[in-house]
């Protein structure tokens, strides 16, 4: 799989107001980045996810999923993939039962082996920067050449292209284009602009991505 369902950058969304979900979805689509990981970090997370999922141009997944019960909530709300900050066999197995792509968080070789035992070959590397960044991805990729990584946590617009230039990185997750202050103040034009800039910087035509993997 190239990225998450074809996308190499995943906006990680924390939105408290479902009433802003339509505008957010429209801004992501307009910016050429029609994908969102709506996180279970607020009381309104399910409502936000359900509202975003009504936009047929948007690929919406659920993030910060830590229980099998939350998998069911996400699935019922229209999530098309699930992301977890850690590795829960219960979460993975429930996603597999429902046919939902799932990307559990890992930060060690032991967790990667557990993910492989569960039949997975693409995992979230989290928190990426706090766990050694790209250097750690390279080291883990050398030991597990069959695994692809989605680094998330501390990644910025400036560092994302460098991560994506490595052949083991399927995608990156980040919130720079959907920063909470932008969503709270309804700066949808700025969200669109940041998405467009991200797409340009992380396309295969980007000078960074044209180079050989480090």
How would you sum up this structure, described in words?
It is a single chain. By secondary structure, this protein is of the alpha/beta class. It has a single domain, classed as Aldolase class I (TIM Barrel). A 4-stranded parallel sheet has the order 3-2-1-9.
If helices are DSSP runs of H or I spanning 4 or more residues, what is the number of helices?
10
Shape: globular
In CATH's first tier, which class applies? Alpha Beta
Sheet with the most strands, sense and barrel status: 4 strands, parallel
Write down the domain tally: 1
The pLDDT mean sits at: 94
Q: Provide the β-strand percentage band.
A: 5-15%
In the CATH hierarchy, the architecture is Alpha-Beta Barrel
Helix content: 40-55%
Report the count of strand segments: 9
Termini distance? 21 Å
Low-confidence stretches: none
Assign the CATH topology: TIM Barrel
Helix and strand pattern: EHEHEHEHEEHEHEHEHHH
What is the gyration radius calculated from CA atoms? 16 Å
Strand arrangement within the widest β-sheet reads: 3-2-1-9
Structural class, judged by helices and strands?
A: alpha/beta
Write the CATH homologous superfamily: Aldolase class I
Oligomer description? single chain
